[in-house]
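Task card 7
Instruction: Convert sequence to C-alpha cells.
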Amino acid sequence: MFQYYFLLGVRSLRRNPALTALMVLTLAIGVAASVSTLTILHVMSGNPIPHKSDRLFVPQFDNGPLESYKPGDRANDQQMSYRDAVNLMAGKAGERRTALFGIGMPLEPERKDMAVFIVRGIATGGDYFNMFETPFLHGQGWAPAADQRGDDVVVISRKLSEKLYGDADPVGRRVRMGGFDYQIVGVLDTWSVVPRYQHLDSADGAFGDEDDMYVPFATAVRHQVDRNGSTGCQGNVEPGYQGFLDSECTWIQFWFETASADRAALQSYLDSYTAEQRKLGRLLRHSPNKLYNVMEWLEFNKVVDNDNKLSVWLSSGFLLICLVNTIGLLLAKFSVRAAEVGIRRALGASRREIFTQFLIETTVVGLVGGVLGLLLAFGALSLIAMQSKTLSVVAQMDWIMLLTTFALAVLAAVLAGLLPTWRACQVTPALQLKSQ
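Output:
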C-alpha cells in the first residue's frame, strides 16, 4: 500500500509542476540555510577526542598579586608560570603530563633554491604525542631522557617534511632552525584536530592549521626560542631571560592525563601543591584551584561563542517561515482536489487512507526538497569556506549532518503537510458529488 500511495504522490506532484517546484524550492532553501549554520556549530562544538576527553585535564590556579583582588574574583588566565610548569612536570600526578607553549623560528633549508622561512610549532614534553594520540608517518617522538637533557631533536609535520625532502623519509637528518641544528626523530602524518583543543592559545586560534614542528620544552628554554603566543605579566620582572623565567608571568599551557575519569586524586594533588607554594610566599590570593576536562575547557574558552548560536537560531526561524509558506502552498494544492477526495470517500476510502495518501505525498516533497537542500547547503558551505582559512576548517559537512539534512527536510515537509492533510480529510463526499 505504501508503494501505491508513493506512486500516487509522485503522479500528483507532476500534475502541477510549477506549484510543486515552488514548494520544493521553498523547503530546500529553508533546510539549506538551517543546515549550513548547524553544520558549522556541529563542527565547532564537537568533541575532538571523545574516547578520552574525560581523562585529559587542564589545571588552573591564580598566581596574581593581591593588589586590586577581591575574594571570589574569577581567574581568567588560561596559562601558568614557568616555575609552576616545571614543578608540575617534575611531579608524579596523573598517568602523563606535559607543558607546552607556542614557538616560532627561522628555518634554513639545505636546498639552495629555497629561501629561509619561518616555521611555527610547539615546545612540549615527550608525553605530548601519546597523550593526544598524534599519528606518525615516520619515526616517533623523543625519549624521556631527551626531555631531561634538552636534546636538539625535533618532530616535524608531514607538510613540512614534503616541502623540504619530498616523499623521502627524513628521520635521522638534521635541519637548521633558529641558528641550531636539530635532528629529526619523527614525522607526524596529517593531523587535523577540530577544534585544536590542546593549544587554544596558538596564534591561529582553535581552528588554525596544524603545527610545523615540535621540540622538547627544555630545549626551547635553553635556546631562548621566541615565543608565539600570549604572555601575561603582573608585578615586577627582573631583566634578562632568566629574570623572565623566575617571574610570575604566565605563558605556558599544561595538560594532565589520568588513568581513569576520577579527577579527585588530581584535584587533591593540586590543592597540596598550592598549599606548599603559599608557604613559600606565592599564590597569595587563595582562590580555588580548578580542573577542566576537554569539553569544559572548550566551554571555558568560549570556542563556540554566542554569535554562532544566534546564527543557528536565526536560520531556524527562517526555516519556520519557509514551513509556513509551504503550508500555504499545500493548502492551495489540496483544496483543488476536494472533488477527487469526495469521489474516493464515496467509493469506500476511509479518512485514515486519505490522510495516509496525502501525508506520503508531502513526504515525497520532503525527499526532493532534501536532495535540493543538500546541494544548496554544499554550495553555501563552499561560499562560507572561501571567506577565510578558519571558516574553511569548520565549513565541512560530515555523514551525521548529511543524514540530518534529509531527516530535517522530510520532517519539515510532514509537519507542513499535517494541517493541509487534515483539512483534506474533512471533505464531505455528498457535497462534492452533488456539486459535480
